[in-house]
Amino acid sequence: MTKKPTSTGPGGARVLRTKVKKKRGLKDSSRRWLERHLNDPYVQRSKADGFRSRAAYKLIEIDDKHHLLKPGMRVIDLGAAPGGWCQVAATRIKSTEEDPRVVGIDYLEMDAVPGSAFLQMDFLDDAAPAKLVETLGGEPDIVLSDMAAPTTGHRRTDHIRTMHLCEVAADFAISVLKPGGHFLAKTFQGGTESGLLDLLKRNFRSVHHVKPPASRDESVELYLLAKDFKGRTGT
Ligand SMILES: C[S@@+](CC[C@H](N)C(=O)[O-])C[C@H]1O[C@@H](n2cnc3c(N)ncnc32)[C@H](O)[C@@H]1O
């Protein structure tokens, strides 16, 4: 790897751009991914700010604009690893070690995040919904989902799998949220089925798509934000 000053950053400072040398065994697409990752300002910022993922900034930017996370709330974070969203949520709701009010779930391992509990299990497991609510110790004010299915290389398959996760997350949110609660979930441009949108519109007072600046322009990723849950009576 070599670092070359290739451009000027904020304040006119020279920015060192990391180039990954062409090597045998590293496919061109992997080399380009690594180069983009190493030069991504959000990746560099997340290291400096102590966040575990660049994804943390997506939640920060959405919350700064839509004011979802308030002290004292209870939060469920679906697809939590490596823990960036748990870090942001626990800090913003002022969750403590003594009374953790954030519960994350992922089938991958995750190091503990102060102020949050973690379940290492598949959210699609039948036992997961009850276990999440039991661990949280009450109904959530917010259900977050940044779940993404592992990529297969076949774009359409990846979309379908991630959309399925989004739909299951929406059903879960409707079955557990407190009235007035919110649901924020990863989806894809053009991917949200009208059935899912109708379901959310029937159950929440406002529903729209959001694309935070930290979500790369070239990515088809979007977030569905459903605010102000109407409650379960009449659903
Ligand atoms: C984009 S990452 C989440 C990043 C996280 N928001 C952060 O800030 O660190 C998506 C996560 O969803 C998880 N995931 C995908 N399908 C899942 C499932 N069925 N159950 C639990 N976790 C799942 C993946 O393991 C992955 O860790």
TrEMBL record:
Family, as annotated: Belongs to the class I-like SAM-binding methyltransferase superfamily. RNA methyltransferase RlmE family.
UniProt-listed Enzyme Commission number(s): 2.1.1.166
One GO CC annotation: cytoplasm
Active site: K186
Keyword Transferase among UniProt keywords: yes
Biased composition (Basic residues): 16-25
Protein name: Ribosomal RNA large subunit methyltransferase E
Subcellular location field: Cytoplasm
The species this protein was found in: Neomesorhizobium albiziae
A single GO molecular function term of this UniProt record: rRNA (uridine-2'-O-)-methyltransferase activity
Keyword Repeat: no
Binding-site list for S-adenosyl-L-methionine: G83, W85, D106, D122, D146
Domain Ribosomal RNA methyltransferase FtsJ intervals: 51-229
